[in-house]
Amino acid sequence: LDGDVIDITEQYKEKEGTLAERRSFRHAIALIYKLPEPIIPRSEPITIDVQAMITNLKPQNIGSKLLFNVTVSNVLKKEKYFNVSTVVYSLYYNGERGKNILIDRYSLKLAKFKKNIRRYEINPQDYIYKLVPFSIVRISVIISTVQGTVLKRMFDLKIKKPTLIIKPMGRAVVGKLFYVDVQLINPLQVTLTNCMFSVQGIRLNGAQHHVKPVKPFGNVIYRFALVFDQAIKETVVFLFTSNELDQVQGQIRIKVDYN
């Protein structure tokens, strides 16, 4: 390939070359440089046997039912058989799979241009214990025929966890007790057990406090007493843990004065 380079565009029948000419050129270059991807013109039709949608899915608070529909539509002009696999599982932020929540596999025989709607309802007790700390749930739908997989659809749902409501009581003064009220609302229809609070801050010891079980849908307020030995601005984090609710936290920025 050493030597001069000339422009041979005008030799093509079309300004950028016909599809056959471009493919021929691409093939020649691929033989030399081993380029992996062939030209696939967008004008060529792509055969699709089926369409699928995940619908009626909305962000949910932890403790609510997970509701969604899977709609499978036959877009061919003839009857067709499909195998459908719907899998729901927890997911980490890095994409690593957590625990399976639901697995549903079924076969469909759809007439031309017909659709099938399958409705799902997952109760809180069926998914809460399978959530990983970030509480992301992935819904994966895979549709296949005897020829192989023809369509995949995925949807990630963030489960909203409750937060602690934190209210300071008065001003923080060096050497004096400073009270903070922390409110927790149990969103579950089960009692929270093995409950514990952790109070964290740069200049605070990581104190831990065991508290009584919280009743279903219970609304409780805990009062904490803090003492600071210098005038600073401190971020204090309150972390609540239980067997049923994993972790719930909240934080407050406190300005401590001398008097």
Describe this protein with a few key phrases.
2 domains, Immunoglobulin-like, five-stranded mixed beta sheet, 259 residues, disordered N terminus, 16 strands
CATH topology tier name of the largest domain = Immunoglobulin-like
N-to-C SSE string, H for helix and E for strand: HEEEEEEHEEEEEEEEEE
Q: Gap between N and C termini, in Å?
A: 84 Å
As a percent range, the share of helical residues equals under 10%
Helix count equals: 2
**Largest sheet: number of strands, sense, barrel closure:** 5 strands, mixed
How would you describe the shape? elongated
Going by CATH, the architecture of the largest domain would be: Sandwich
Number of domains: 2
CATH superfamily of the largest domain: Immunoglobulins
CA radius of gyration: 30 Å
Question: Could you characterize what this model shows?
Answer:
With 259 residues, the chain is mainly β. The protein has 2 domains: 47-160, Immunoglobulins (Immunoglobulin-like, Sandwich), CATH 2.60.40.10; 165-257, Immunoglobulin-like. It is 7% helix and 51% strand. The protein is built from 2 helices and 16 strands. The strands form 4 sheets. A 5-stranded mixed beta sheet has the order 2-8-7-4-5, with no helix packed on it. It has a 5-stranded mixed beta sheet with strand order 10-16-15-12-13, with no helix packed on it. A hairpin with a 5-residue loop joins strand 4 (80-91) and strand 5 (97-110). The protein is elongated, with a radius of gyration of 30 Å. The chain starts with 18 loop residues before the first helix and ends with a strand. The model is unreliable at 1-7 and 29-48 (pLDDT under 50). It comes from Leptotrombidium deliense. GO terms for molecular function: protein-glutamine gamma-glutamyltransferase activity.
